[in-house]
Amino acid sequence: MIPEKYYYAVIDLLTIIFPLGLSFLPINPVYKKWKFILPAVILPGILFLIWDAWFTDMGVWGFNPRYVSGVYLYNLPIEEVLWFICIPSACIFSYEAVNFIFKKEAGSKYHRLITIFIFFFGLVTLAFNAHRAYTALTFIGLLAALAFVEMIWKPDFLGRFYIAFGFILIPFFIVNGVLTGTGLDEPIVWYDNEENLGIRMGTIPFEDVFYGMLLILLNISLFEFFQKRNTNTRN
To answer: How many domains does the chain have?
Structure first.
């Protein structure tokens, strides 16, 4: 029986172990791209950890001491810090699996429509909920990132990103469900509903989907940027 104080750590481990194992398959050895994966995980991770610590100080969310080891970095449990390594890494491995399975142009016909829908949905949501810290900052960040990628950078990977994100949502709902209390006596991560829309998908706050989309979009954008820069340098 696993002690309760290691539950969050076990979730981190289970999140990364399967996609990490698949990354070593000879048919698609994603692990060889570590020099692109590492900065793509670390740079957004620093930004999100600052955001995380700030919101924890504000009481927008917090962590149940019952399910963490008791080792903290400032006000964040070490398991939360590791989450920003495990989740982005697993998502990049999943994205690469999508690239391997689907054609390079997959989703290219529809990515702009998806972006426009998300953009206007985010604007409307933001307009009526600017006073809610989690809702506001999540959509401000996501809209800014999408506007830059879609309208300024204009890369060719955004369609594949949306396809990959669709697949990623499956483990996302499982992992976030447990973190927010599914199957447990208490949530591992709790939220102040005054700072979000108060809409739950099971136990998961609605904003978590778009928070996750923002994080993974930054991870994959940087992953693609570093790969392209390396290719251009060699040429």
So the answer is: 1
